[in-house]
Write a structure and sequence with these properties.
Elements (H helix, E strand, L loop, with lengths): L8 E7 L7 E4 L10 E4 L19 H5 L2 E3 L8 E7 L6 E5 L5 H8 L17 E6 L5 E6 L26 E7 L8 H15 L8 E6 L6 H12 L4 E2 L8 H13 L9
Parallel strand pairs: 1-4, 6-8, 6-9, 9-10, 10-11
Antiparallel strand pairs: 1-5, 2-3, 7-8
């Protein structure tokens, strides 16, 4: 049986507490057996208060308890809600399956997302924290792979793109060696198109193109072609060997803490 470990969307039914039944009676004073109406409304029912928590990493608890009830009292209200969680991170990684996003997170942080040589190894967001010697930190969100046609539900669709909506910076991670038989230029353009179709303002955010798998011999000619066709700056790395990782960390540090606009060397 599949074990559920992460939930970012859940339907929740909340029931306010019922009010007391109250009572209806006549006042019975001395020499006045039915002196007038008396009674009470039974008191108010309990309220349900919904409060967001920044430390929440999953809606798993609510997934297994989708009905929340308050204590009874006065007659109340019943509502059905849809809760949606968005990860809060500084940097969002965007790329095709097997581009090396999870390997990159493992290289630059203590996070240990699953890594495998098959599509959609990552099925839910993983957060890694990049720490510097001066104790400054950058939170990096690794989301499931994005492919052409995701806006039509192909692959895992756009569901997980909500987790980069609050990031300040995007890393476009490309398999520059073309190990899956695709051209990195096509991957880059398809990724930007899918981001635009999900939320156009994502393309207005600062971003860096990361050419991964540069340790493979096929990467060099494809990188040359990529630069010629796109005229984009590229940071060369290998999440497998550590090539360029120090330069990537430095570039991110300058962007977030030194106010530098230059974040991706040629």
């Amino acid at each position: 049986m599949k074990i559920i470990t992460f939930v970012d969307r859940v339907r929740l039914q909340v029931n306010a507490g019922n009010g007391g039944d109250g009572c209806r009676a006549f006042r019975r004073d001395k020499y006045e057996p039915e002196g007038g109406p008396s009674g009470g409304d039974g008191g108010r029912g309990g309220s349900v208060i919904l409060r967001a928590d920044k430390s929440c990493a999953s809606l798993l608890d609510l997934y297994f308890q989708p009905i929340q009830r308050a204590e009874h009292g006065e007659r109340g209200v019943q509502k059905k809600l849809l809760l949606e969680m968005k990860t809060v991170a500084d940097v969002g990684l965007v790329g095709y399956p097997n581009a090396g996003k999870s390997s990159l997170v493992r290289m630059i942080s203590l996070a240990r997302p699953k890594v495998g040589a098959y599509p959609f190894t990552t099925l839910y967001p993983n957060i890694g924290t990049l720490e510097y010697e001066d104790f400054k930190r950058i939170r990096v969100a690794d989301i499931p792979g994005l492919i052409k046609g995701a806006h039509e539900g192909i692959g895992l669709g756009h569901d997980f793109l909500r987790h980069i909506e609050r990031t300040h910076f995007l890393l476009i991670v490309l398999d520059m060696a073309g190990t899956e038989g695709r051209n990195p230029v096509d991957d880059y353009r398809n990724l930007l198109e899918e981001l635009k179709l999900h939320r156009a303002e994502l393309l207005e955010r600062p971003r860096m193109i990361v050419a991964n798998k540069m340790d493979l011999p096929e990467a060099a000619p494809l990188l040359k072609e990529f630069k010629r066709r796109t005229r984009q700056k590229v940071l060369q790395i290998s999440a497998e060997t550590g090539l360029g990782i120090a330069e990537l960390k430095t570039a991110l540090y300058h962007h977030f803490f030194a106010g530098s606009e230059e974040v991706a060397p040629q």
